[in-house]
Structure formats: C-alpha cells, structure tokens
C-alpha cells in the first residue's frame, strides 16, 4: 500500500484540490488578511464544520468567513462580534446539527482562551501536539467534536495538519511545531481504506495512533503526506466505482 500512496502523492493536483476542499476557504481568507490569529481562528472554525459533503461544507464555510466574520475571524472573536452573528439563520442553524447558540458558545470559549495571548500558537506553546489536540477539543466541546476517549478527533487533527505541515495544501503557519509529531486524520472511511493495515478496526484515538505509527515508519520526516495520498486514493476509488456502475 505504501507504494500506491507514494505514487498518488506524487501525482497530487494541489490547485484542483483547493477548489473543492474546505482548506481552499482558508486560502481565500489569506487573500484578505495576513494576521495570524485571523487565519488560525478561521481555519479552526472551518475545520470544525468539515463533516459531510464537501459540496455543502465549502459554501457554508465561505459564508461564515466572508459574510459573518467579514474576513477577520480574530476580530470577530476578540471583540465578541459573534454575539450578533447569524441573526437571519434559517431554523437557528449554522450547519447541520450545529445551531447558532452552540456556535456562539464555542466562540465564547475561544475568546476566553486567547484573551491573554496574541495567537492560538502562543496559547498552546507549552503543550505537546497530542495535548494541544486534546485542549482544542475541549474548546470546541459544545459542538460534540469528539474527545480522545471516544473518537479519533479527526477535525482537530486536520486543523493541526493545516497549521503545522510544511507542504501545500497545508499552510505551515505554526513554525514552533514539528510536522513529525502530527497525528493521522482518521474517520470510518479512512479505516475502510486502510483495513489491510489496521485489521478493520473502527475509528478511535488508539486506532489513530496505530495508523500514525505506520505513517511515521514509512516517512519519519513527513508522516502526514500519506493523509494527503489517502484522499487521492479515496477519490480514485470513488471514480472507479462510478465507472463500474
């Protein structure tokens, strides 16, 4: 499987990927602000709603960043502008099961956590990567993002990959962390794709650590290149299935 994923990674079309993936919304945000806190907060909240269909996630995330936050998520949090956000939300809904009240509670958590720090990176600087993931999960807990005793913390691991990993489509915004310490972005689909490696296990933090260990053996310097390759693999499998049907 390593050989297949290595080949897929080398053929990865980054610019095409940005057009359809939630990370592309973060790149659009970076066209409007260079403030680190804007990018961190924006990326975290985009990652938070990244479950379900990309075709729905991307416009929802763009609406949040552009129309609700006016391209400045940091100010949106610092100045508590979230209190007046989503005033016209249909059925009090931000996205799927995330309602406006829960969204505001999460924003309040973020405001409290970063109020004495210039950036999220600074706020988390005394924690190793695993503990930082666990801490962020607590901040987002009103959204039932998952915790290490119940899930693989997929969306927070993805956010950390965006922030830390050096190569595009990731941002390498946080220079103080090592990409070798990142954890695999895992869900049911990833478990299915890697069943020959994981023995058909279900998503959990333990399974995430197991897959991460395999990735680190394959490439100690950049283990999460295989997360990128797995996305390519999933797209390839989906296209093949459509052709067969």
Features:
mainly alpha; two-stranded antiparallel ribbon; 58% helix; globular
Q: Indicate the mean pLDDT.
A: 94
Structural class: mainly alpha
Order of helices and strands: HHHHHHEEHHHHHHHH
Overall spatial form:
globular
CA radius of gyration is 18 Å
Quantity of strands, as a count? 2
Number of helices: 14
The largest sheet, given as strand count, sense and whether it forms a barrel, is: 2 strands, antiparallel
Strand order of the largest sheet: 1-2
Query: Which stretches of 5+ consecutive residues score pLDDT under 50?
Result: none
Fraction in helix: 55-70%
Distance between the termini: 25 Å
Strand content: under 5%
Question: Summarize this, please?
Answer:
With 245 residues, the protein is an all-alpha fold.
SSE inventory with pairings:
Blueprint lengths: L1 H9 L3 H7 L2 H8 L5 H13 L5 H15 L4 H6 L14 E3 L2 E2 H15 L5 H4 L5 H11 L14 H11 L23 H6 L1 H4 L6 H14 L6 H20 L1
Antiparallel strand pairs: 1-2
């Amino acid at each position: 499987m390593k050989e297949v994923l290595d080949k897929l990674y080398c053929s990865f079309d980054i610019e095409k990927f940005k057009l359809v993936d939630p990370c592309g919304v973060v790149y659009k945000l970076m066209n409007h602000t260079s403030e680190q806190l804007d990018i961190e907060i924006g990326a975290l909240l985009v990652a938070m709603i990244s479950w379900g269909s990309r075709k729905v996630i991307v416009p929802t995330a763009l609406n949040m960043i552009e129309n609700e936050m006016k391209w400045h998520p940091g100010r949106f949090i610092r100045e508590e502008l979230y209190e007046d956000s989503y005033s016209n939300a249909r059925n009090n809904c931000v996205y799927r099961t995330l309602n406006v009240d829960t969204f505001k509670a999460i924003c309040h958590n973020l405001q409290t956590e970063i109020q004495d720090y210039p950036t999220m990176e600074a706020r988390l600087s005394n924690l190793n990567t695993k503990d930082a993931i666990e801490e962020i999960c607590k901040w987002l807990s009103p959204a039932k993002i998952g915790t290490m005793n119940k899930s693989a913390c997929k969306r927070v691991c993805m956010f950390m990959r965006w922030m830390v990993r050096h190569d595009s489509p990731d941002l390498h915004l946080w220079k103080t962390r090592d990409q070798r310490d990142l954890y695999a972005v895992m869900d049911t689909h990833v478990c299915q794709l890697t069943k020959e490696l994981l023995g058909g296990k279900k998503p959990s933090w333990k399974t995430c650590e197991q897959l991460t260990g395999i990735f680190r053996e394959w490439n100690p310097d950049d283990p999460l290149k295989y997360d990128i390759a797995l996305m390519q693999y999933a797209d390839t499998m989906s296209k093949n299935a459509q052709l067969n049907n």
